Amino acid sequence: MEKTKKRNGFASGIGFILAAAGSAVGLGNLWSFPYKTSANGGAAFVFVYILSSAIIGSIVMLAEIYLGKRAQANPVTAYKKANKGLGWLGLFAIIIPLLITCYYSILGGYTIKYTMNSFNANSQILASFSGNVGEVILYTAIFIILALVVVMAGVKGGIEKASKVLMPALFILLVGVVIYCLTLGAGVKDGLAYYLKPDFSQLGFKGILAAMSQAFFSLSLGMGIMVSYGSYAGKNIKIGQSVFMICLFDTIVALLAGLAIFPAIYHYKAISGVDLKVNGIMLLFSSLPVVFDNLGTIGHIVSFFFFGMVAIAALTSVISLMEVVTQFVIQKFRVHRTKAIFVVAAICFAISIPISISLGFAINGQDKMTICGQNWLDFIDMVTNTVLMPVCAFGSCIAIGWFIDKKATANPLKTFKTLEEDGLSLGKFGKIFAVMVKYVTPALILVVEIFGVKDIIFPGNVFSKNGLGIVITAYALLALAAIVYFVWLVKRETGCNADEIDIAIAANLDESDEDEVAEEPTEN
Ligand code: PHE
Predict the structure, then answer these.
(1) Is the CB of 384 under 6 A from ligand 1?
(2) 370-389: per-residue pLDDT in tens?
(3) Does residue 28 line the site of ligand 1, with CB under 6 A?
(4) What is the distance of C-alpha 251 from the center of its chain?
């Protein structure tokens, strides 16, 4: 008999795509992609990046969205439903976003500060602002509160609505800034050449690895986000098409960002003779402000729009990071969304404080408050993005490629059939997907993991004790997640999306949530 069950989640396919794209488009696109491109052989790097997004990124994204969609539940339950022994990956996919939120929000706070301060010589403030911990904490708090407000309003009423406004706004601002930068005149051509001139000799194996790991980060993979968003996707959402759109949008935004940044930097070089730094934190918070300040009032206006756009990009990413953790807290601990998001936000805020202090020291050249020789931000970034994220992405492929089918056949054609019976219909692409998700993509991810770890332990081919410390910390975290899971969670209920509605109703808070849920027939 068919009964109608209330489902909380995205109301429309476009809402889902924009929310997932909102997660994907972030500092990774607007900031690290451009400078990594210029450092690794321009168009050659872009070529490998696009290929990585297509053959690794899109496959992992499909696997993760599908894991969530079939379970209609948080990552722990979702991986557990693929196989009981894999649930720890889900727990792990909740710890990583929690850690990332803590440092990403600080950078988000910086972008708000720079937006507000656009008319007041941003080029002068990096040292003083980053060293003024009270102010940094204040802006971090503002940023976290903005994300909290959205997550608190729920998936449909908060995340979907916000994404539908913010993502088009971001795109319009970006295109506007690109047009302005491309018409600056002197130096623009040199900037474009520096950004995009293909130089395969500069790319090398290192560049290829950098492109692959950049694709993971940029597409928000290997950290539960797409599992969680996928769990809010209804039957009406076409996974294959959605993944294509999300990857396309993410790549276009990344490419456009470089079209704004390098012409601007080279324009400044052409008129002043000064070569600004285009690497790391200096690019966004020191070099670009110099260019904007130099362009007078128009530059200040462009700066306002530019940093506003970066802030929006960072915000929609942090919203997704906080949602994963919040979803789990709601479903596992059976608490109302409001309570859950406050707890999550408070934890992230508390951890962000020492990180911002350590970052302030690093920016001001002081060698204080480091872990394994790194400031806290870089330390957490290496632990999560270089070591842990590929492990989780690998697990997502394995879960789909080998565990949905209980017989774990080695034949991808059989896997293809099992996946189709399970509900994943990808048409002609299905067979290719089965081969990729079973063999090719996990193998490539393994390469990224091994060489990423090697690079941390042997930077420049010399053994580093600090690097070893970073890697050990990361794997210890992994082991901890596994232990907690097997001791505490494996035999217990870990909740699903429908619980959230029950919880809201039980708490008598259902009026506001009533319109948050879409009616969906379930086959039982
Ligand atoms: N994808 C985001 C970016 O490109 C970062 C991010 C990573 C967001 C992981 C959420 C999860 O900046």
Answers:
(1) no
(2) 999 999 999 999 999 999 99
(3) yes
(4) 13
Instruction: Output helix, strand, coil percentages for the chain, rounded to the nearest 5.
Output: 80, 5, 20
- Phi then psi for residue 294, to 5 deg, are -70, -15
Q: How far is ligand 1, taken at its centre, from the CA of residue 394, in Å?
A: 18
Lowest mean pLDDT, pick from 73-82, 204-213, 339-348: 204-213
- Give nearest CA residue, ligand 1 atom 8: 317
Q: Return the structure tokens found at 61.
A: 């994204």
- Nearest-atom number in ligand 1 for the CA of 221 is 9
pLDDT tens per residue across span 28-48: 999 999 889 888 888 889 999
**Angstrom distance (rounded) from CA 178 to CA 174:** 6
pTM: 0.94
CA 229 / ligand 1 centre spacing (Å): 14
**Residue 120 structure tokens:** 């007041």
How remote is the CA of residue 8 from the centroid of ligand 1, in Å?
24
Give the type of residue at 408: A
CA dist 484 and 490 (Å) reads 9
Q: Cα–Cα distance between 250 and 165 in angstroms, integer?
A: 17
Q: How far is the CA of 428 from the centre of ligand 1 (A)?
A: 30
207 lines ligand 1 (CB under 6 A): no
Instruction: Report the SS3 class of residue 301.
Output: helix
493 burial type by CB count under 10 A (0-12 exposed, 13-18 middle, 19+ buried):
exposed
User: Residue 435 and residue 400: Cα distance in Å, rounded?
Assistant: 11
CATH 1.10.4160.10 for the 13-362 domain, yes or no? yes
Instruction: Give the DSSP H or E segment for 4.
Output: strand 2-8
Task: Determine the length of the chain.
Answer: 524
DSSP classification of residue 520: E
Q: Which of 270, 277, 274, 219 is nearest to 248 (CA)?
A: 219
- Where are the domains positioned within the chain? 13-362
- Token pair in block for residue 102: 């803590």
